[in-house]
TrEMBL record:
Primary enzyme class: transferase
Listed name of the protein: Adenosylmethionine-8-amino-7-oxononanoate aminotransferase
UniProt source species: Flavobacterium sedimenticola
Protein EC: 2.6.1.62
NCBIfam families listed in its UniProt record: bioA (TIGR00508)
GO molecular function: adenosylmethionine-8-amino-7-oxononanoate transaminase activity
Locations listed in the record: Cytoplasm
Gene this protein is translated from: bioA
Keyword line: Aminotransferase, Biotin biosynthesis, Cytoplasm, Pyridoxal phosphate, S-adenosyl-L-methionine, Transferase
PANTHER family hit by this protein: ADENOSYLMETHIONINE-8-AMINO-7-OXONONANOATE AMINOTRANSFERASE (PTHR42684:SF3)
Function according to Swiss-Prot or TrEMBL: Catalyzes the transfer of the alpha-amino group from S-adenosyl-L-methionine (SAM) to 7-keto-8-aminopelargonic acid (KAPA) to form 7,8-diaminopelargonic acid (DAPA). It is the only aminotransferase known to utilize SAM as an amino donor.
Amino acid sequence: MTLSEKDQLYNWHPYTQHKTTGLLPAIVKGEGALLWDDNGKEYIDAIASWWVNPFGHANPVMAEAIYQQLTTLEHVLFGGFTHNKAVALSEKLLSVLPSNQKRIFYSDNGSTAVEVALKAALQYNYNQGRKRTKIIAFEDAFHGDTFGAMASSGITFFTEAFKGSLLEVVRIPVPVPGKETEALQALTALVETNEFAAFIFEPLVQGAAGMVMYDAAVLDQMIAVCQHHQVFTIADEVMTGFGKTGKTFASDYLQNQPDMLCLSKALTGGTIPMAVTTFTQEIFDGFYDSDVNKALFHGHTFTANPTGCAAALAAISLLETPEMQHNIARINAQHLAFAQKMKSHPKVKTTRVTGVIFALEIQTETHESYYGSMRMKLYNFFIDKGVILRPVGNIVYILPPYIITTEQLEKVYGIVEQAVEMV
């Protein structure tokens, strides 16, 4: 029995309808931007394995940092203790985050980072004796799969089964070009009711919606409106963080700084699950009290895992190297050239680029669902051609590791061109 056949017997995969899914490729090795399955087939990982591997697979710097930590202290509980790697990582993160961020809360995945932020926003108001129990989010947002994160997401088929069991969230239009005023007015009307604890958003790029992009200027205005009405702002940078938009954080494009940031995915270079929620001093002070019941009672067994912290420190060091910053600029230039080439194609509706993120929307006569027939046709075509891409309906996006070569990226573009011609 093959590895893929055993997998089909035993495992339940994410976002997968197993009745209509065949055998899955069994990946046995990775190096740089490449992966190989157990039949020796080579794949270009053009989405950095769900946006987590910016420095490539089997990166020796990451491996050495993890090995060294494992031989010193693999894990210690963070409840009632601390350790040098957590202190060092917090110190490093606070040096690169927006300057208003003062406190670091560790968890283990992006959904949980969002969950912590939402709970903090709600409990802060509770601790202050204010009844603010609602959240504002963008339409078509995706913030994760835990209950608070799921409630804040706007992709309905992910959440349909759980209606009535979720936080109360009101969604507003995304301020894409032409909708800035509508979105700003909708937000203003909501925050003026004094019923909302927080506004959560994916800054500049909505990932799971199909890399929907909007300008920093309008987000700055929206944050200012929230600050005026004492509504916390939560920047979900799980996808956009650590270089994806061309700067370390998408929030670095903003003049007005969010109150909280959620980080995960590339935080540890794709090696060990870890997440971070960061806070202003004001929010932390809302829990700092002689009354123990006002503490933030949230925690995880692997909170601030020393090995994960060591991996994150190595990842941030790699990101800051001149070579990696040059790679980010190189990929952006290649993306812009490819977008320019494809935007006039008769089968292409739009192209868009932010940092290392490229998206292309294929013209369709009818609305294409998230996991519809076109998406599956495209996905299978890419896998057959040895390229890992996960289209969203009729939108093909590329978000490669920063170490992808010029030649590898050009090969990906060529296969995307073939796919556009095919549909």
